[in-house]
Specification:
alpha/beta, two-stranded antiparallel ribbon, 9 strands, about 45% helix, globular, oxidoreductase
């Protein structure tokens, strides 16, 4: 079975063949500008996780505090079900769901999508873990992950028929950087992976190794 990073590499090759050079140049420029801006660096290892309550894909409220009482957590922030890299990552975690449970942990995925859009993502990827809706990026903001998409990138997305605003229920065109945290039962972050390049993700196996070491 292929790894997440192998799947991402294969997808990027297809994208390079299909997308115009100008589109690729502008998307790379947006990533570079985001990295150089210094915004949304994310919480770091050793910091405490903020407590929050968010609705899952069915509208049921889920409390971070109550989830931590069950055991350590993998918390992964994704951009939305419209993002192919996010879907590859979510499916990769679904493949490892038994390993995560065997480590005594659970995984929660969070995006700024509405509950309806989150439900579509959960069903499409056949996810057996919690998918929470952080409308307005209020929790992602507490994790220092939120940035505003530049206008030229918004136009590229719109030109591709991708209306992020429809998925998120607002017109702010703000997104969280993709990020993965491992949180111990005391609420401390023991692993943090935050990258300005949305095509880069951490391999789930590495995250599970961290879980096992807690």
């Amino acid at each position: 079975m292929s790894t997440l990073l192998e799947e991402i590499k294969a997808y990027k090759e297809v994208f390079k063949q299909k997308a115009s050079e100008e589109k690729q140049r502008l998307m790379a420029q947006a990533t570079k500008e985001l990295e150089e801006s210094g915004v949304a660096k994310g919480l770091k290892e050793g910091e405490r996780v903020p407590d929050f309550t968010l609705p899952d894909a069915t509208g049921k409220m889920v409390s971070m505090k109550e989830e931590l009482e069950k055991g350590p957590l993998i918390l992964t922030f994704y951009r939305g079900g419209w993002c192919p890299y996010c879907n590859l990552e979510l499916k990769a975690y679904q493949r490892e769901i038994d390993s995560i449970k065997n480590a005594g942990a659970t995984i929660i995925a969070i995006s700024p999508q509405t509950p309806d859009a989150s439900l579509s993502t959960k069903e499409k990827n056949e996810l057996e873990f919690l998918v929470l809706s952080d409308e307005g990026n209020q929790v992602a903001e507490q994790f220092n992950l939120v940035f505003k998409m530049p206008d030229y990138l918004v136009e590229i997305y719109k030109g591709s028929g991708l209306m992020v605003s429809d998925h998120n229920g607002n017109d702010d065109w703000e997104l969280p950087k993709p990020a993965t945290f491992v949180i111990d039962q005391t609420g401390n972050i023991v692993f943090a992976d935050v990258d300005s390049d949305y095509t880069k993700r951490v391999e789930p196996g590495k995250v599970i190794d961290v879980l096992k070491s807690i």
